[in-house]
Amino acid sequence: MRNIDIELTTLSSTHHVEMNPSDAGFQDRYVVQEIIKEMAKNRPIDTKGKKRFKVLVLNEVDKLSREAQHSLRRTMEKYSASCRLILCCNSSSKVTEAIRSRCLNIRINAPREDQIVKVLEFIAKKENLQLPAGFAARVAEKSNRSLRRAILSFETCRVQQYPFTINQVISPMDWEEYVSEIVSDIMKEQSPKRLFQVRGKLYELLIKCIPPEILLKRLLHDLLGKLDAELKHEVCHWAAYYEHRMRLGQKAIFHLEAFIAKFMSIYKAFLIATFG
Amino acid sequence: MSLWNNCLIYGVVSFGFHAFNASPTADDAVSLRRSAIVGPWRFAMGKRDAVVVLSSDDGGDEGEGEGEGALSSSRSRSKPAAKPHLARSEPRRAKKPRVSGSRSRSSSSRQSSIVDEFQFLEEDFNEVFTGAKVTTGFGRSTAKESWVDKYKPCTFEELAVHKKKVEEVKSWFEERLITSKDNLGDHVLVITGPAGVGKSATIYVVASHLGATLCEWNTPTPTVWKEYVHNSNTGQYVSKLDEFEAFVERTRKYGLISQSSAGESKSSAILLIDDLPMTHGNVARRRLQNCLHLLVQSTHIPTAILITDYGRVDSADREARFLEELHLSLESAGARKIAFNPITSNAIKRILSKICRQEKRNVASEQIDLIAKASGGDIRHAITALQFFCLKVDWPSFSSSSPTTVYDLHFGRDETISLFHALGKFLHNKRESVSPSGKDPHPMQEKFMRLPFKMDAPEKVLSQAHGQARPIADFLHENVLDFLDEEAVDDASAVLSYLGDADVLLHSFHGAVARNYEAEGVVQSAAASIAVRGVLFGNSHPLPPRWHSIRKPKLWQSEKFSLHNKDEMLRQRFMVYNGVSSIDTSVIATEYMPACKWLQHRLQAHEVMMLSTEIEDGISLDDREVKTSGDEIEEW
């Protein structure tokens, strides 16, 4: 028997515990098991002396490892009498079938743009802000249907310039700007040297904990905006290819860079073919 | 042999004791042992001719050594009563291990049965006598001995070390021994070099040539704690470093006292520190360094310190760095440094064939050649290999007339190369200028054709460098772009793709392949192979060789930072959001942090605190919290 020390913050009340087991990294499965067992042991008792249950909220279930999900399934069944589980995730495709079939699946859609606009208008009213017509819509449009993002950029705009004007610049996130910089770099020159410079920038982004998947997605997004229609299909294919390998592999930078190198190679061949 | 050696040394020590006590008893033996603990040094002409000092009044040359040897052996025979006790304490002082079999037996016998012990002693006695005979016969008669000891160089001609180096050492000692010794400042010579290049042998020969007595420090053999407790019920444990320090202190203050008891003139003594005590940790190392520093500054006896460079190829090793430091500090204290190089294979060949002649063995010259090559400049190893080779006449690989390589020998020091050397080979990608003529049975497409390597198979180079797949891949990834042609983006793409393959392979066994070490090993070597060969194949337009430095992967640093940042975020998340714990680090990194930085920036610029009424309560808190980590990131 070995002892494992895992530090994990949980949020709890008498009726519930909320936590993010994937923070524990590869040891997540012990966390899931232990917490649930612990909860089963200390069941709350209500005023009538009846045994009640506790609610366990697990976030980011899709980020749990396969082993952890497996053990979650077993514990769920065993202790179902003493606790109720609420599992949250971004994508159910990464939650195993076994768990999905044991849960009631509720899908929450991202808010539509008009819904976002409504929220923004509500905030403006509460904050006593003059909101010119169409500005909220532009913020909502840029937000990629993420309410959080919309509110954040709304606040940013408020700090940048108030009173609002209709065609006020809605600044993108700094890392997004950085990515577009990378994109224009690689469109300008295709050489190992340039690739090396780009590597430095990628490292910087990775150090800031921008997830490599999101990075790659953004890269592709920006590239597609600038590319010739002819190339789009091929570039998408390679992006998907390297994204898959990034998930299989360990060091994201290898695959990010491989994608950029591949793109450079394709783009250079295309330039030579078109302009000679 | 070492046990025998020590027996004789005890003869020497007990000699002094006889002056006080005519008949040594068991008690004496105990006290003798203690004295041995206090001062484990021995006087010797050569390592093995420990006896010589015993009565060689005028710093005996070889000829006298013979007689002395005989005398001492008779001496030890004359008092068999004291023998058992002496023998018991011997292993403490053994320098080289005896044949390992008998050694392990000696330790086991101590614990188990007395019968065994007696047998062991008997064996020892035999060895003492045969050993003594060997000494008298100029060390060249019994076949029992190892050739390394048997053919220990006695004259300058027999030394395989380069003449210049020998001359350098000799003249240094001459200067100090023959001319007046006090006006010269430095009295310490540091000899460095890999193992088996004849550092000690040179000193012995020089000493005997100059008629000087060698006083030698050898690190005592490590004590088994239990054994120590068993042997001495009193007294406290003295660490090897303490012993060494005490020894150095004594020599510095009083010179070699025992010298005068032997009736020597002080002028002809050389202090040899062959083996520095093992040190671990910075404190011990600093002590050793200080101690040696003092010795260098204040000693008046010509002193030689021998330092063996253990594979200095990997500079990351702390031990190696310490040695480096030690060299510097000794030199700064005024010690003279002479570095010995590995012995050339010609010199080794010369020695080996001479031994063959003397042993009347028939060894073909190409076999000697092979052994010399396999030894990697280590003559001790080469001689042992030769002896081993002569034990068995019909080596399978030699019976046929087929050409043999170093690797057909079943022995030999495996040559190693440093990681950077190997990386250089892979990155420079040197190839033959012409493809081999002759029809290839499986012709390949033009674009897959590559010229043959100018090096061994990559896997072999890898194994020589003891390359682990992960660091190899990381290093290659970091450096490969520098070695690509300016225009060759296709190559870069191919290389990086292969490195990605290696990465995927390396990750695959992380969880999926349950602890199956064999499979893991295969995956590891496959991944390394793919990474290396991918780099070699992908780089289809190798640049002409020029100097490039190889960088440490920046990846490691960046991983460390990003982990740290992530921890930071996780830690702040709960403080900041007060219950809204569901936010993922990626969201914090991609959305909150940039936004907050903006807000923060603006706030500082305008010096207005208009945001007291925040849109989201969380964010205002967030501002202050994230500020610190944001700044940190900026610094990086």
TrEMBL record, chain A:
Domain of life: Eukaryota
GO CC aspect terms: DNA replication factor C complex; nucleus
GO biological process: DNA repair; DNA-templated DNA replication
GO terms of molecular function: ATP binding; DNA binding
Keyword line: ATP-binding, DNA replication, Nucleotide-binding
Subunit structure: Heterotetramer of subunits RFC2, RFC3, RFC4 and RFC5 that can form a complex with RFC1.
Protein's UniProt name: Replication factor C C-terminal domain-containing protein
Organism: Eucalyptus grandis
Organism taxonomic ancestry: Eukaryota, Viridiplantae, Streptophyta, Embryophyta, Tracheophyta
Automatic annotation (TrEMBL), chain B:
Residue spans of biased composition, Low complexity class: 99-110
Any one GO BP annotation for this protein: mitotic DNA replication checkpoint signaling
Entry-linked Pfam families: Rad17 (PF03215)
Protein location: Nucleus
GO molecular function: ATP binding; chromatin binding
Biased composition (Basic residues): 76-86
Protein name according to UniProt: AAA+ ATPase domain-containing protein
Lineage: Eukaryota, Viridiplantae, Streptophyta, Embryophyta, Tracheophyta
